[in-house]
Amino acid sequence: MNKPSLLFDFSHTIIYSLIIFILSIYSTHVFAIKLDPEQFGQLQLARRIVVYIFPIFIFGLNTALVRQVSFYQKPGEKKALLTAALLITIAGTIISSLFILLFTRPINSLIFHDHRGSQEILLLIISTIFFTYQYATFRATERLFWANLLLLVITGLIPLLVAITAPSHITVFAVLKKLAIFSLSVTLGIIFILQFRFEFWRSCSGYCTRELAYSIKLLIKYGLRRMPIPILLGIIYSGGAIALNYHHAYKESGYFLAALFLLRIIEQAVGPVAVVMLPHLSKEAGQKDFDTIKQYTKNVIEFVFTIGLFVAVQIFLLADYLSNAMYSTSYINTANAFRILSFGIVSVLFFSLSQTIIDAITNRGIVLLASVLGTAISLLGFLILKINSANIAAYLLVISITITSLVLYIYLIFFFNIKPLPQGFGKILFANLIAAVFSYLFIKVLVLLVKLHILSLLINLTFIGIIYLYLCWIFNLNFAKELFQILYPKKWKIQ
Q1: Which residue, among 123, 135, 159, 127, has the nearest Cα to 271 in the 3D structure?
Q2: Rounded distance, CA 346 to CA 482, Å?
Q3: What parts of the chain have a pLDDT lower than 50?
Q4: Cα dihedral: 228, 134, 292, 413 (round 10)
Q5: Which is nearest to 96 in space by CA: 136, 135, 132, 134?
């Protein structure tokens, strides 16, 4: 059976990403209504910390498995790697359980400033570990349709189900427990059906213990080099919230994390694109086809500027409307944090995609170096400044992630000897200017006609997005042409 093409992978990945993006916005809107700003901040901080620390317990398996299975092409090698990954996953659940038992009190105090919470965090970590294993397995074996479907269920549908069915004034602990139990149940069911019944027991035969041990060593060795990166990113992104909690500014922490949520769902929306890229780029790297990877890099830079600038401008313009529509009036300081964080969107997009390219082409520690530099700036800010407002935390995050991304940007430009700005950069700026004018006028009219809520805001963003893409196509930008080719492969004859 022929494997899906890269164009097919990209097309349905983009569709899934948009669905997850919309579901995440709505579920967060519901959580914000049912939780006060302080509890909402605790929910977002707990989920973000779990995302950044769980790779420690599985030795960076989420990246290592995809890269190594794509790099090693023999069936026996792939089976050994997949079996090794499952053993590492099981070991990770044991290690994480011991960790939570040892550090129960600091975890409860850091996130919840309460004596409760560690059990919910443990459940969330274990569910994330098993989800990551199955998601990485689908990615590594190039089953992108199933990978995206699993991602949609775990990150889109389950949070929406929990949010809608939750009673008013539900506690953050109950929300975390439901999210973890539902996610773990779905993932373990899939693992049991697919891995144990159809693949795992067969793959255990046919190669010796030495090959399995070598595969475990290979995955851990590759993953360990990248394991510090999620931790460092956790400090950059979530350090501001932790600092606010340390200074007892709990509501400000909630405002900051409410605004930071937009960056998180932008990461989620772009993440699947990186998922598609990594196995393909790893194959090209294995075949020493760096010309193809160079073209990928040019496309990524153009994508980041075309989409990143549009999203940043729209969030800056609509910050007040976003804050009122997504959250309640009790989130009074979120709008300013939205505006500040909009300046970091281009950097967030570029970092998410560029580290995938670097993972594929080299084992050098440039991503680690960039992450260390950004973390050092964050920590220096925490020491020098008194982080007692959401705005200060937002400024510090933007500065840190911008410098981190700039290091990777400069590295890729010199590595591939490409121009720093994409072709048609002036046209991108002009298209954004026109879209900004349309957006400003349309939202003013929309507010006069209907009561502003999350649905009307999504309609506004969709309408302006269509106008912007049409402008990009009129200006003959490559990104728009390639997107129209995906949507209408027969109708659009684009050279």
Answers
A1: 135
A2: 21
A3: 1-4, 200-201, 203-206, 491-495
A4: -20
A5: 132
Interior angle at CA 55, CA 52 and CA 57, nearest 5: 120
Q: Is the dihedral of CA 428, 431, 435, 436 positive or negative?
A: positive
Tell me the two tokens of residue 327: 């959250």
Q: Are 134 and 189 in contact (CB under 8 A)?
A: no
160 — phi, psi (to 5°)?
Answer: -65, -45
Helix (H) or strand (E) holding 348: helix 345-361
What DSSP line would sit under 221-234, residue for residue?
HHHHHHTHHHHHHH
| Phi and psi angles of residue 206, each rounded to the nearest 5 degrees, phi first | 100, -5
Give the Cα separation of 34 and 166 in Å (integer): 8
Distance CA 475, CA 428 (A): 8
Cα 438 to Cα 463: distance, rounded to the nearest angstrom:
10
End-to-end CA distance of the chain: 30
Neighbours of 421 (CB within 10 A): 13
Cβ distance 317 to 272 under 8 Å?
Answer: no
Token representation of residue 82? 């997949």
DSSP state of 109: I
pLDDT of residue 196: 57
Q: Give tens-digit pLDDT for 400-414.
A: 999 999 999 999 898
Per domain, the residue ranges of the chain are 1-226, 227-422
Question: Residue 442's closest CA among 432, 456, 454?
Answer: 456
The gap from C-alpha 316 to its chain's centroid, in whole angstroms, comes to 21
- Distance CA(13)–CA(16), nearest Å, equals 5
SS3 at position 218:
helix
d(CA 187, CA 134): 7
For the record, the structure tokens of 94 come out as 């044991």
pLDDT for 276: 62
